[in-house]
């Protein structure tokens, strides 16, 4: 967010003058390749810098009264405002007609800070991250782009007890360095509308399991690109594609989109379910809804 001249108000946000030229080149490249623009968005830092002007519940994603943007957008939490501030800055560079996804590559809240940092508390960290998980699984967009779901990555899994600098920087984790939990985070998806299933994180002793997650082709992905994806997965990628060949359980519907989704998912599961293993030239997307149908079963790790 530091590359912005200002993030308030979201619709008026632009990149700082010294970042305009490099950002134009970077965003042009992302537009050409279909890659997302990735941001580290931390409402915590915005609140800490100006606690008298920012409502804590607004920063904690608490569905506060929020901000009324002059363009008619209403923001009930700061994270959405930060995402749309970046979107406005991208549009201001002339990329408004380009489809550039915005991914929140980091967001979190510290459970402890320096003396006097009243916002960095265990209760606030638990509250923010619980709401962040709910927000990530809601399939909702932002006020500017309500149909464009933003992919969000929580920071962080572990406290970084040996990290230098501000005390706060060492306390963003859900777990301590020895594997014990800092606080309990409910990943059961009880608030989710996307159908994913998580189990509660309770420690690193193997009792907890990861999410049910799959990789599929985006709904409007280019069919020519999808064919190259199938060729790669079923060839050099090492995927057993017999299920999508004739007489296979997933041959029907005999559509490239369906075949590509199956091949993508097997490749994704084989390689550890890293988000970069579901890119496929920008045609893949991770989903928490089981894409299996009829006798066609999509494997998961």
From TrEMBL:
Pfam families the record matches: Glyco_hydro_17 (PF00332), X8 (PF07983)
GO molecular function: glucan endo-1,3-beta-D-glucosidase activity
Family note: Belongs to the glycosyl hydrolase 17 family.
Protein EC: 3.2.1.39
Native species: Rubroshorea leprosula
GO aspect biological process, one term: carbohydrate metabolic process
X8 domain span: 213-298
InterPro entries: GH, Glyco_hydro_17, Glyco_hydro_17_plant, X8
Superkingdom field: Eukaryota
SUPFAM superfamilies: (Trans)glycosidases
Known catalytic reactions: Hydrolysis of (1->3)-beta-D-glucosidic linkages in (1->3)-beta-D-glucans
Keyword entries, A-Z: Disulfide bond, Glycosidase, Hydrolase, Signal
Name of the protein in its database record: glucan endo-1,3-beta-D-glucosidase
């Amino acid at each position: 967010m530091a590359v912005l001249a200002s993030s308030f108000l979201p619709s008026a946000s632009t990149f700082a003058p010294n970042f305009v030229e490099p950002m134009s080149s970077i965003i042009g490249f992302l537009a050409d390749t279909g890659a997302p623009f990735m941001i580290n968005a931390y409402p915590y830092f915005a609140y800490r810098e100006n606690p008298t002007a920012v409502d804590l519940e607004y920063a904690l994603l608490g569905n506060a009264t929020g901000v009324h943007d002059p363009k008619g957008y209403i923001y009930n939490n700061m994270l959405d405002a930060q995402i749309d501030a970046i979107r406005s800055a991208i549009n201001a560079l002339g990329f408004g007609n380009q489809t550039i996804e915005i991914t929140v590559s980091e967001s979190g809240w510290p459970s402890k800070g320096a003396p006097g940092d009243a916002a960095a508390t265990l209760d606030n960290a638990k509250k923010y991250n619980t709401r962040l998980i709910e927000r990530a699984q809601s399939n909702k967009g932002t006020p500017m782009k309500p149909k464009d779901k933003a992919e969000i990555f929580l920071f962080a899994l572990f406290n970084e007890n040996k990290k230098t600098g501000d005390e706060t920087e060492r306390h963003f984790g859900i777990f301590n360095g020895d594997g014990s939990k800092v606080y309990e985070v409910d990943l059961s998806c009880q608030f989710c509308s996307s159908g994913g299933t998580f189990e509660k994180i309770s420690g690193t002793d193997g009792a907890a399991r990861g999410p049910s997650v799959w990789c599929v082709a985006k709904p409007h992905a280019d069919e020519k690109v999808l064919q190259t994806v199938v060729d790669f997965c079923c060839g050099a990628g090492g995927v057993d594609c017999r299920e999508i060949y004739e007489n296979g359980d997933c041959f029907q519907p005999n559509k490239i989109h369906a075949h590509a989704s199956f091949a993508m998912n097997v490749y994704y599961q084989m390689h550890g379910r890293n988000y970069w293993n579901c890119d496929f030239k920008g045609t893949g997307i991770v989903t928490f809804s089981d894409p299996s149908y009829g006798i066609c079963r999509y494997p998961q790790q």
